[in-house]
Automatic annotation (TrEMBL):
Family: Belongs to the protein kinase superfamily. Tyr protein kinase family.
Location of the Protein kinase domain: 17-281
Name this polypeptide is given: Tyrosine-protein kinase
Domain of life: Eukaryota
Residue sites binding ATP per the record: 49
Length: 284
């Protein structure tokens, strides 16, 4: 049963919420810091994602889709949805991930990062969370550095399930990419061209995400348009090796960007690769 309101546990009464300051703005929602009062009267800090255009049916629908995906997920590398508050306005109550996205963190603390340590840990955690998502048959479809949040310097969490979909009995998902704004530069060629999404297209996006990280927040393909980036990939070209990226990790990125999706590594392999890397053990 994936009807949110039918699961009473997921519903949070408005009087249990205390709103704090604004911490982020998304496409459909504003995110506030706040507190959730638990049954013993104790307060837990939370993030309250509040729908902005309550009147718009399409916004409500998108917001609910996102909540439906998230309510089923429970993993330390994925932002946890604690429940929803019907409002109005409709609100998602999430665990608070206070340090912002890895992009913001890299931008603010570039000198406090050792690529062979922090990046390695974040990459392992993203792959681990994505492997969990794969086991639960969800495709993320918007994996990008901007959607990886940090709860501490050593705990990255995947967020933003606005484009995520559960795979049906088939192992893939098709979407019409007409209209809307799609993160084409993060998308695998098969997603850009025929709207085909599966775990292997998420692996392509994982490659772009870690490229952003090792490039210290550069934008993939600079100011090229999505279509131009696709043409470049068609010619066999790929994003170049970031200066801070060791050879063996760049090799892994290139494998994520194999045209034949069946030749890309799995998230399980990627999680093991980033965890078992000898350099990771050395710096520890
Ligand atoms: P959208 O899905 O519309 O892009 P996001 O979910 O990405 O919106 O939220 C916008 C911003 O709010 C994020 O970039 C992040 O800075 C902040 N944010 C989102 N969720 C949380 C959270 N659980 N804890 C802390 N900050 C968050």
């Amino acid at each position: 049963d994936n009807n949110l309101e039918s699961k009473e546990d997921n519903l949070i009464e408005p009087d249990r919420l205390k709103m704090g300051t604004l911490i982020g703005e998304g496409e459909f929602a504003s995110v506030f810091e706040g507190a959730l009062v638990d049954r013993n009267g104790e307060e837990v800090k939370v993030a309250i994602k509040t729908l902005r255009n309550e009147q718009l049916e399409s916004s409500r629908e998108n917001f609910r889709k996102e909540a439906k995906v998230m309510i089923n997920l429970n993993h330390h590398c994925i932002v946890k949805l604690l429940g929803i508050c019907i409002g109005p306005p409709l609100q998602m109550i999430q665990e608070l991930v206070p340090l912002g996205s890895i992009l913001q963190y890299i931008d603010m603390h570039p000198n406090e990062i050792n690529p062979n340590f922090e990046f390695q840990i974040w990459a392992a955690q993203i792959a681990c969370g994505m492997h969990y998502l794969e086991e639960n048959r969800f495709v993320h479809r918007d994996l990008a550095a901007r959607n990886i949040l940090l709860s501490t310097k050593y705990q990255a969490k995947i967020s933003d399930f606005g484009l995520s979909r559960a795979l049906s009995t088939d192992k893939e998902y098709y979407s019409s990419l007409r209209g809307g704004r799609w993160p084409l530069k993060w998308y695998a060629p098969e997603s850009c061209k025929v709207g085909h999404f599966d775990h292997k297209s998420d692996v392509w996006s994982f490659g772009i995400t870690i490229w952003e990280m090792y490039s210290f927040g550069a934008s993939p393909y600079g100011d090229m348009k999505g279509g131009e980036a696709i043409a470049l990939i068609d010619k066999g070209e790929r994003l170049s090796q970031p200066e801070a990226c060791p050879d063996h990790i760049y090799k892994k990125m290139l494998q994520c960007w194999t045209l034949d999706s069946s030749e890309r590594p799995t998230f399980k392999e990627l999680a093991e690769f980033f965890k078992s890397d000898p350099e990771y053990i050395n710096v520890k």
